[in-house]
Fold:
Amino acid sequence: MNVTKTEFLWCSSRQRMHQLPASPVLISGNSVDPASVVHSCVTLESGWIDRGLSMSTHVTKIVSGCFAVLRQLYSICRSVSWESLIALVVSLVLARLDHCNAVHVGLPAYQLHRLLSAISAAARIIYRTSRYDHVTSRHC
Structure:
């Protein structure tokens, strides 16, 4: 076991979070501290899991990664063809949103809205509209 890569997580509701032990646990003779967020790569659907199972860390990392790529694409969008821009947005942004989308089932509306904001921003870059323009089905 590699102690530097080993993480464990106590999960609980927000009301019972204070009851979780904060002391390290012995695993194979090694002391491992509990984490507040872990990266799960056990299954095909990898993602970030927090102590309250709220998926807020996961959504934050996906959305921030999408917007980082969108800022880079915005700087080159006038220099590439429309078809190339679509291919870049699909491969670099929408693929991030699509990856691990099975864990998005049951998310609260405010978390889904954050994911939708990245999709809307991607559509605005493709159609070269203002950041304040609404994205509607007329563009699709």
User: Anything to note?
Assistant: The longest strand covers residues 37-40. The first helix runs from residue 56 to 76. DSSP finds three helices and six strands in the chain. Residues 8-50 form one domain.
